[in-house]
Specification:
About 50% of the residues lie in helices and about 5% in strands. By secondary structure, the chain is mainly alpha-helical. It has two domains: about 120 residues, Rossmann fold (3-Layer(aba) Sandwich); about 35 residues. The chain has a four-stranded parallel beta sheet, with helices on one face. α4 links the parallel β3 and β4.
Length: about 200
């Protein structure tokens, strides 16, 4: 018997004995329990309101990705205190903002594909919104790596405009070169053949 084979079969049998049919159903139950815990804490904490009378982060649901300052637990506390939501496991349907400080390039690519265009902002957006006692625009707080790519990346129409412009320049250059060579060619100058008379 191979090493670890015994543990694999025991984990399979223990999963069969669990109340979950698969991992997906387990995660659904886990997320529901975490949401119920958050709701219980939120109902017992006093929500601080903004100037409009609604809680400051009303309608905002954050997911924290990676290491942040303040920590994800502190950000969770701000959401509890100011009427927002905190999601432990990313769901495009439940999250309105992704909070992170810095991500490696590979994670940026993944983030772009799974986030579906959600705002990816620094944690200072939460802190500054609390300090201003109003929900601030997230654009200035966009993650630097995404903001620089957004501004530097040309659009598809710009690519085709540059390409057609380059084709036009190439065609004009070729035509100019051809005209110069024809003008310098003694056989073609003036439309007659110069030099020795041919009989």
């Amino acid at each position: 018997m191979a090493w670890g084979a015994n543990s694999r079969s025991s984990s399979r049998s223990s999963f069969r004995n669990s109340p979950f049919s698969d991992f997906g159903s387990y995660m659904v139950v886990k997320n529901r329990k975490l949401q119920e815990q958050f709701n219980a804490e939120a109902s017992s904490s006093s929500n601080s309101c903004s100037n409009s009378g609604k809680p400051l982060f009303h309608g905002v649901s954050i997911f924290v990705d990676g290491f942040t300052v303040p920590s994800s637990q502190e950000l969770r506390g701000y959401m509890l205190k100011f009427g927002g939501r905190f999601v432990n496991y990313f769901s495009r349907h439940r999250v309105t903002h992704i909070i992170c400080s810095n991500l490696p390039d590979s994670k940026i690519k993944n983030l772009r594909s799974f986030s579906g265009g959600l705002p990816v902002v620094k944690p200072t957006w939460v802190l500054d919104s609390v300090a201003a006692n109003k929900l601030l625009n997230w654009v200035p707080y966009q993650l630097d790596q995404l903001a620089s790519e957004t501004h530097n990346q040309p659009t598809l129409s710009a690519f085709f405009a540059l390409k057609s412009c380059a084709v036009s320049v190439d065609a004009a250059t070729r035509l100019t070169d051809q005209m110069k060579s024809e003008a310098e060619d003694p056989l073609l100058k003036g439309g007659t053949i110069k030099g020795d008379n041919l009989s």
